[in-house]
Amino acid sequence: MNPSAIAGPFFTDLYELTMAAVYFGKRVNDRATFSLFARPHANRPFFVAAGIHEVVDALAQFRFSDDEIRWLQQTGRFKPDFLDHLSALKFTGDVLAMSEGEVFFAHEPVLEVTAPLIESQIIETYLINTVGVATLLTTKAARCVHAAAGRSLIDFSLRRTQGSHAGMTAARSAYLAGFSGTSNVLAGKQWAIPVSGTMAHSFVSAFESEIEAFTAYAEIFPDNSVFLIDTYDTLQGAKNAAEVGMRMKENGHSLVGIRLDSGDMLELSTQVRRILDQAELPEVKIFASSGFDEYSLERLVAAGAPIDAFGVGTRMGVSADAPYLDMVYKMVCLGDRDVRKVSEGKITLAGKKQVFRRSRDDGRFTGDEIGMRDERPDGASPLLKRVMKNGRPVGSFCTLEESRERFAGNLKRLEDRFKKLSDPDLYPVFISERLKELQKKC
């Protein structure tokens, strides 16, 4: 399953097509530039760019099928000559975008499209949805990684995400942000993400006793067993796991770990660690899963809970504290005319743009500047790179592993005061003088 394969130009809102029909009828189809950016969110001091690869794949395959054209014809809304135009339509535009894994901030364009107006208009819904959801989930996962302070995280979100595509996006986003693996088997196959899983409470209940369940699992997976110990009594479960683990050790194998899934995680993990150590099983790791997010992770890490790794599921997979990202796609240029929206509270910046980032000698980010596309400020690095030209991808994409490494580097270079879960400092983002002057003319 390639997620980009499930969406084409028909993945759009009706008004994109009705506007396109008017553009076509009135011969308004100059090349237009649109900026895709996120508005500020109180709980998100930074964002992580994602979904770019999927967008480029989809735009390169942009076609209306014969069946889609027939359906549009049956609605009675559109004239035959417009439908003929759609049936031959391809994406012929240029796209500049940030690299996946790049940290960015509110109002900064993460992507800009320049294409004939009909093309650039129809793709609006798809771009907002695809980049918006992937960025939302990657950002949430990134906050969890930061809060975990080096402890391993596994994506357990699949069964609670809003649909299969969201489940795939969550797994990829989590791995990009630094999770160690996923429970999602399809994502493991699709992107070579390490897969991880233990057992359910139903497995333990399927046997006459907890000891019998653990023993059966160990016989089939002698070197890859993690026992879920809270089906009945957590501390007794830990003792039962230790008993089976000692037998495994005598037979030349090792119990990988135990998993906690309920209760007071700080208190239970401390007591379970003591039971395992007393059984001379210091190598057995403690895994925990139970509605974790960045806030609960931060509290447990600060309290010194002896938990080696966390399964993070529902709250990450649906970005529970911020379930949507206010990502917008606004026209900034049409033909030779720069345009902007000036609605109260929703003002946009006219003109083709670039985002420039400055850093100290030690690599730490000091601030960004949103400027004109052709500006070249000294000592600053441009973040928007050309990824499509004339409707075709430019060069080759970074691999998921490379994007993951880019984000890890970005996270280290962003000072902690800009990453705090509560009351973070506002990262400095400036508008260049040339871009300010342009706004006065629009």
Give a written overview of the molecule:
With 442 residues, the protein is α/β, with parallel strands linked by helices. It has two domains: 3-137 and 322-440, nicotinate phosphoribosyltransferase, CATH 3.20.140; 144-317, Alpha-Beta Barrel (TIM Barrel). Helix content is 39%, strand content 19%. The protein has helices spanning 14-25, 52-60, 66-75, 80-87, 117-122, 124-148, 164-176, 185-191, 201-205, 210-220, 234-250, 265-278, 294-303, 314-317, 400-413, 433-440, and strands spanning 31-38, 47-48, 94-97, 103-104, 111-116, 152-155, 181-182, 225-228, 255-260, 285-289, 309-312, 327-334, 337-338, 353-359, 365-372, 381-382, 385-389, 392-393, 429-431. The strands form four sheets. Strands 13-12-1-5-3-17-18 form a seven-stranded antiparallel beta sheet. A hairpin with a 2-residue loop joins strand 17 and strand 18 (392-393). The relative contact order is 0.15.
Properties at a glance:
about 450 residues; alpha/beta; nicotinate phosphoribosyltransferase; TIM Barrel; 7-stranded antiparallel beta sheet; 6-stranded parallel beta sheet; 16 helices; about 20% strand; elongated
- Overall geometry comes to elongated
Look at the structure and give the mean pLDDT. Answer: 95
The total beta strand count reads 19
How many whole angstroms does the radius of gyration measure?
A: 25 Å
Largest sheet: 7 strands, antiparallel
Counting structural domains, the number is 2
- Strand order in the sheet with the most strands: 13-12-1-5-3-17-18
Structural class by helix and strand composition: alpha/beta
